[in-house]
Amino acid sequence: MIPWIETDAMQQRVLFLNAWLSQRYTKTELYQQFNISRPTADKWIKRHEQLGFEGLTELSRKPHHSPNATPQWICDWLISEKLKRPHWGAKKLLDSFTRHFPEAKKPADSTGDLILARAGLVQPRKTKRRMSADTQPFGECTAPNATWSADFKGKFLLSNQKFCYPLTITDNFSRFLFCCKGLPNTKSAPVIAEFERLFEQFGLPYSIRTDNGSPFASQALGGISKLSKWWIDLGIRPERIKPSHPEQNGRHERMHRSLKAALQPQNSFEAQQTFFNQFLREYNEERSHEGIGRKTPAECYEPSKRIYTGHIEPYDYGDNVEIRKVKLSGEIKWQGKTYYLSQVLANEPVAFEPYADGIWHIYYRFHLLGSFDAKEMKIKSATLWHRQPNECKRCL
Q1: Which residue segment(s) compose the domain that 47 sits in?
Q2: Residue 351 and residue 356: Cα distance in Å, rounded?
Q3: With CB atoms 3.0 to 4.6 Å apart as the test, which of 36, 50, 266, 369 could cross-link to 272 if both were Cys?
Q4: Residue 142 above 90 pLDDT?
Q5: What is the pLDDT of residue 55?
Q6: Matching Pfam families, A to Z (predicted)?
Q7: Cis (ω within 30 of 0) for the bond into 215?
Q8: Report for 44-58, 72-86, 296-310: range of highest mean pLDDT
Q9: What is the pTM of this model?
């Protein structure tokens, strides 16, 4: 006879009982041959006497009643909400549960994961290669309205075969989504109109972070565009991320991932905007964020104290600068030669400030456009991907 084999326990129990029932062996011989203890042998002999060979299977060790078990209605609620929001994980669903049922005891995060996994509603995460952090970050974002982020979430076709360009604007600190506006193009006029609506409703931020695409930036000196000039006029500092580095606007890009996962093309701009408005409400009021202590953006955001009036104040460049007025053609006259800056700056004063031997910095208000090199007699555009407010004495 062979010893007890744990990986085939049922078969070994049958062999043991058959040997015992044959009455050819003593219990002591069977203990030794099957390498089991006396209590184990007695247990299976008694089980066979009571239930026959069917009684040799392992009985469930699950208690008949567990006082700490999650109530079934909570399990059902989590599963139902997961089916409605398949891209939400257990943490966000449990945070939503707390807001809906503040008097009920919230299950642990691990319990929520287990409930969803048992229901077959958990998808394994794809591993992504981590980007190295930028060594020169932008201005600190420690409060609402310190920095807003803006971008277009690509483009997609509506059911009527018209392209839709979603304009998205968020507050970097609270993750509050100000707008998700479906536009037919990326021209500056409707974007300015949307920003003006937001400024009137929420006030002015101190800076706005964007990529280098239109209408946020241009190929003009200092990347200035009609939109960014307007921001500068209002005392808002444009921040442009380094080309091909969307991770520098990571919080906004994370929102775009959620939008992409939820996106459902509609048959008209009106219907699509209704969908965007629903997404915005859910994102701000229902979806919690671990980066803000698992609160919702609406719980963390408050309007800016910088009120928007629409009035553009004159700018004082101070002393020790040379002022030039930009012509309608976008050109200026400097040291006997004509140089092109940008037609966006037509009729506006710009300042030449001495910086080093033969080098002049060129400013529009507090915004550094570029520099003039007297030796080369050239104007070079400024690259301000990482420039900090405290690095520029003219920045607000």
Answers
A1: 6-56
A2: 15
A3: 266
A4: no
A5: 66
A6: HTH_28, rve
A7: yes
A8: 296-310
A9: 0.70
